[in-house]
Each structure stands twice: as structure tokens, then as C-alpha cells.
Amino acid sequence: MSQALYRKWRPQKWDEVIGQPHIVQTLKNAVASDRVAHAYLFAGPRGTGKTTAARLLAKAVNCLDPDPAARPCNKCDYCKAVNESRFLDLIEIDAASQTGVDDVRDLRDKINFSPNQGKYKIYIIDEVHMFSNSAFNALLKTLEEPPPHAIFILATTEIHKIPPTVLSRCQRHEFRRVPVDDIVAQLQNIVKSEKLKAEPEALTLIARQSAGGMRDAISLLDQLASTGQTISLDLTQAVLGTATSQTVLDLVSAVLDRAPAAGMDAIHAALDSGTDARVLARQVVDYLRALLLIQMGNGGQVDLSADVRARAEKHAKAFSSADILRMIKAFNAAAADQRGGWQPSLPLELALAEVLEASAAMESPVPSTTIKKGLEILSQTGEEKPKTERI
Ligand SMILES: Nc1ncnc2c1ncn2[C@@H]1O[C@H](COP(=O)(O)OP(=O)(O)OP(=O)(O)O)[C@@H](O)[C@H]1O
Ligand SMILES: [Mg+2]
Ligand SMILES: [Zn+2]
To answer: How confident is the model at residue 340 (pLDDT cuts 50, 70, 90)?
Structure first.
């Protein structure tokens, strides 16, 4: 199997790290002026560059390039050894699997030995918040008097779980979520170098979905690329399950037309073809939310394909905001409804009946027969009802 894209695209130089300019600047300066601290804490969301920066620092402090400002050079023996994960003085500990006090004691025993190869021994402790109390205490002892050749880099996604005693001994850097535009730019780079084909709207959707995590964005790109197809908005939405399906459009149109029968048909056709009821309810909520955004003039934030967007603009004009809010509430309740086990369509049917009822009450005259017909259909939808009904 080929190497995962996010590994292949791990920054090897400081200026390849995206979206963390303050941290990069501080660490670069520290290396250039030979003022590297003995303990660092890198905190921040998943996939934003903590481990990457830790390895860069490990490489830079041992790099043999005569110009400190050029470190890491990625050419000397030590840089190469780190890049190939065979540098003996870089010790990576995963606290998620080595939480015990023994692991830390072991580390403390070994730490006094001088580095094998380089100038510094670097300990990267990932997910350090997983350490037990006793492991933290053991670590603290080491942090109190680290040997001059040792550098600790602790990394965590959950800084609030780190004892203050440990925090106060570390130079702290908080990694930010990477801005959407920066992620899109990086995805574009990757698409170009890897000779992939992708629509710009798809890359924007990927970037938004990954909530500032570069690794998640690259992994998703990787997953989509592995289909061998062009990475289109449609494909991306389908994989993410964010597509606005025809069912959603039909359902919302049915509310607009006050056509309960059409609405019920749309629901049942979707569920019969295997759509999960709660997923459908969520898609309806997503779409209604998009209508609200369009009404508020924020249509740019909405990821919809061109044809769906054209329908959405019409829907956004046809409904009042109050209508949309009411629908969101009703379908959101359906999305959250855990019951409906024996009748999966029920929460959706109730939501539809509720919004139709409400719009009937608001704006008569709605033929009450229409509503009645809808409720009749609702009560007839029991083809797969079990023999014994639990209520
Ligand atoms: N700031 C960034 N700039 C460029 N690429 C990044 C950045 N952050 C993450 N990446 C990409 O994501 C991959 C994983 O990043 P990294 O291991 O540094 O994340 P992390 O912050 O340590 O995440 P975790 O908390 O899950 O351990 C990298 O190999 C790289 O491809
Ligand atoms: Mg990491
Ligand atoms: Zn080097």
C-alpha cells in the first residue's frame, strides 16, 4: 500500500508548517540563538502540527549545518536519520499506550546517559494528558532537574488535564486551528503535485468539514482520491453524507405546496431505498439552515451544488424566516429522536405533520382536508408494523 498522503506531506522544514506563524518563529529563533528550552508543551486541536513541530525541533537542535539559522537542513546525517525514523536520540513515547509510572521511571533511569549520536536527547511525549497521576509525578521530578542534554516536548489535545505543576515547568505553545483558506491552498498544492483532479468547491467543502485540522483534511482528500474519480463536489458530499438529496428538496417543496401526501411519499421512498431516517432528518435540517443563511445574505457560506443552490434560492424567498425556524425545530427533533425503533419513519412523519399543521394555522385557508389526508396516510404507513405493538 502506498504511504498515506498526510504522512507524505508532513512538513520537513519550518516554512512548510502552515497556520502557526508565532510558534514557528519562536522555535526558529530559539534554535538560531541556541536558546532552546528544556521542556515544551505543545497544546491544540488534532492534526494541527504538534507532532510535526516537535520532530522539526528535534531535528533542528541536532542538525550539523554550520549555520544555526539553516537548521534543520534535511541533508546532514542526523537530519536524514530523523526523517527516516532511525535517530537514536529521538525517543517518542505515546502516553496513550504507556501510561504507567514504570515507563516514566524507566525513562528517568535512562535519561542520565548522554546522547548516543547528537548533542541532545529529545523526548516527545504524545497525548501526555493520558498519564496517570503517579506517572505525572515521576515526570515532574525529571522536569525539575533535567540533565543539560535533555529536551522534553509534551504534546496534548487536552491541556486542561495537565497538572499545573507540570504546566509551570514548560514553555507553552498553543496550536490554532488552521484557517479554511490555508487548508484549501495546501490541498491545492497536494492535488497539483499528486496529479489529482479536484473541483475547487470540493476542496472548500473538505476544508470546512475538517474544522481546522490539516490531517483530517488531507486524509479526506486521500480517501476521495482513492476512488479514482475526479474529486467533485457531488462525490465529496456523497462521501461526507452532506448531499442535499432530491428527497430533501421534495420534502421542503411539499411543505411549501401544503401537499402532505407528496411529503409522505418522499419520506417513504427514501426510507424504502435504505436511507436512515435520522440521517435524512439531519439533511433536512442542514438544508433548512442553508435557506436561513441565504435569507440572511450569507449564501457564500453554503456548500451547495449549482442546481441545488438555484432551488434553495427559490425556497429561501418563498418561506418566511419564522417558517424556516419552525421547520428546523421540528426536523431537528426528528433527527434527535431515539425512539421510532419499530416505526423508523414516525419521527419524520410527525415533523412533517407538525410543520404543515403550523402553516395551516398561520395562513388559512389551507384546506383542512389536505391535512386530514396527510394524517390518514400517516396512520396507514404501517406495512412493516410488528404483530405486537409496544407503545
Ligand atoms: N500546521 C500544519 N502545516 C502543514 N501540515 C500539517 C499541519 N498540521 C498538520 N499537518 C498535516 O497533518 C499531519 C499530522 O500532523 P501532526 O501529527 O503534526 O498533528 P498533531 O497536531 O500532532 O495531531 P494529534 O493531536 O492528532 O497528534 C502532518 O503529517 C501534515 O501532513
Ligand atoms: Mg501528534
Ligand atoms: Zn541537518
So the answer is: low
Q: Using omega within 30 degrees of 0 as the cis cutoff, is the peptide bond preceding 45 cis?
A: no
Q: What is the mean pLDDT of the chain?
A: 87
Q: Which CATH class is domain 246-380?
A: mainly alpha
Residue with cell 496513550: 96
Ligand 3 centroid, distance to 149 Cα (angstroms): 18
Per residue in 9-33, pLDDT tens?
A: 999 999 999 999 999 999 999 999 9
Return the residue matching grid coordinates 449549482: 306
pTM greater than the 0.85 cutoff = no
**Nearest CA, atom 20, ligand 1:** 47
Label residue 159 by pLDDT band (50, 70, 90): very high
Does ligand 1 come within 6 angstroms of the Cβ of 19? yes
Cβ pair 104, 133 in contact under 8 A = no
Q: Smallest Cα–Cα separation from 347: which of 272, 288, 254, 281?
A: 281
In which residue ranges of the chain is CATH 1.10.8.60 found? 180-240
- For residues 58 and 82, the answer to whether their CB atoms sit within 8 Å is yes
CATH node for 180-240: 1.10.8.60
Considering the chain, tell me which residue range(s) the CATH 3.40.50.300 domain(s) occupy: 5-174
- What are the φ/ψ torsions at residue 150 (nearest 5 degrees)? -105, 140
Residues with CB under 5 A from ligand 3 (ion): 63, 65, 72-73, 76, 79
Cα of first residue to Cα of last residue in the chain, in angstroms, is 52
Question: How close is the Cα of 149 to the center of ligand 2, in Å?
Answer: 23
The pick from 27, 51, 157, 180 for probing ligand 1's pocket by mutation, whose C-beta has the most ligand atoms within 8 angstroms, reads 51
Which numbered atom of ligand 1 lies nearest the CA of 157?
25
Q: Is any atom of ligand 1 closer than 6 Å to the C-beta of 45?
A: no
Q: Which ligand is nearest to the CA of 60?
A: 3
| CATH code 1.20.272.10 region(s) in the chain | 246-380
Q: What is the pLDDT of residue 206?
A: 92
Look at the block and give the residue holding cell 486541536.
45
Q: Is 8 in the pocket of ligand 1 (CB under 6 A)?
A: no
Q: Tell me, using a 6 A CB cutoff, whether residue 215 lines ligand 1.
A: yes
* Fold classified for 5-174: Rossmann fold (3.40.50)
For residue 179, whether the previous peptide bond is cis, meaning omega lies within 30 degrees of 0, is no
Whether the CB of 214 sits within 6 Å of ligand 1: yes
